[in-house]
Give the backbone structure.
Amino acid sequence: MTRLSTSRRVAIVRKWLGILSISRLVRWALLFALGWWIWTNWHDDLDPVNYTARYAFPDSKFVRVDGMDIHYRTSGKGEPILLLHDAQSSLHTWVGWSEKLSEKQQVVSVDLPGFGLSSPHPQGSYSAFMYASFLDSFLQKLNLNKVSLAGCGLGAQIAWQFAAESPHRINKLILLDAPGFEEKSSSFIDWLASTPVVSRVLWKVTPRAFVRLSLVDVWADDARVTDSLVQRHFDLSLLPGHRKAFTDRASVRDNRPPIDLIERISAPTLILWGAEDTRISPEHAYDFHKRIRGSVLKIYRNTGHWPQEENPLETSQDVQAFLEGRF
């Protein structure tokens, strides 16, 4: 057997030490960790039939609107009020209001396109114009010529735009933590979602931990962000087309109607805001209050960006009083 020369053995040792150098080990470890993270957070779309059965209500209905299957609920009898949820939410956010307000009103809540159990927009359009057009079509489908309109976050933006452009269709307006006056900015997730190639990865890679973090950001009391709440939001985000709808919305550069429209609102308006809202500062509640003539403003302590969900009893009582003209 031929023995390796000392110089040859030294060369082999140096070669393997180079391969196993700290920098190389770090790079390989990072690549392995990234691969493992992608693999563990890779989720195929869920079966819509099974999850519709899981998350629909006994009074859930579906209607075809502008080429989309739209999920909605109708509860109670009386003057109609339509409830519009925020982004990354669904009509489940209105459960507390629906129970209370349906005692005296006809309460309609709807999953906006690409949220909850509603299908995404067929052309991937999520502009302010699309939302206004969708709302008009939805109301026509339900033969609702005139309604009171309430919205939170994105739903509030849709509501105030519609109230400004179609005042003859609105009885009363309720805005919860409405966007409009805050500086335009994008979160890190929104930036990823609007980045080519990366956005396509997000159609499959969905960390459940990110869903929890987004809910913790919305609620003032982190302890109320339960596993069941996180699981529902996580499951609904995995329905077919919803993750692409998220990246499509993030890619819309200017999805805000002109702020000057707010001064055209003539319907009696109630403005509700969570004092602990970290997404849209409560200082902007006063901006809406100043611009909308005769509006009423209420701010709730220990409440975050979704007052109707975190503080359903007090907010629904105030809304009922407002609808009855008691303030």
Observations:
- The mean pLDDT is 91.
